[in-house]
Amino acid sequence: MPKLWNDAITAHRQAVRDALLDTTAELVAENGLASVTMTQIAEQAGIGRATLYKYFPDVESIMRAWHERRVGGHLQQLAQIVERGGSVEQRLEKVLSTYAMIDHEHHGGEFAAVLHQGSHSGHAQAHIHQLVQALLTGG
């Protein structure tokens, strides 16, 4: 297949995946994790159930993927703070205050325990520790 075709397919799959993650997160926020079904997600996202199951086996796996994406965004946000410059003290203070705000705003709720079971949470914590350690060592 031509590269352009492969790129279009990849972009389409990513768009569908993102729509599924966003739709599921909205439904869970509105109705609670236990109330959301794969049928509801497919209907709300405007795709068939068979297509949905090609992407994810269940609601919990969708929420874990959503959480991984969100954690990745938070890590990127913290890394950008480090790269912006300024004194070590300023960057460290900004990283720690931003992390504290993220932790305060985004942790809790009925599905927090489910979301933090994945290995991505451990990797994210290790990444944050390395980031802070590098700042401290640099200072």
Helix content: over 70%
Unreliable residue stretches? none
In total, how many beta strands? 0
The helix-and-strand class reads mainly alpha
The arrangement of helices and strands along the chain is HHHHHHH
Q: Taking all residues together, what is the mean pLDDT?
A: 86
Spatial extent as radius of gyration: 18 Å
Biggest pleated sheet:
none
Number of domains: 2
**How many individual helices?**
7
Q: Span from first to last CA?
A: 52 Å
How much strand?
under 5%
Subunit organisation of the chains? single chain
Shape: globular
What does this structure look like?
- This protein has 139 residues and is mainly α.
- The chain folds into 2 domains: 1-57, Homeodomain-like (Arc Repressor Mutant, subunit A, Orthogonal Bundle), CATH 1.10.10.60; 58-139, no CATH class.
- The chain is 81% helix and 0% strand.
- It has 7 helices and no strands.
- It has helices at residues 3-31, 38-45, 49-55, 59-84, 88-106, 112-115, 119-138.
- α5 (88-106) runs antiparallel to α7.
- The longest helix has 29 residues, at 3-31.
- The relative contact order is 0.11.
- The model has no long low-confidence stretch (mean pLDDT 86).
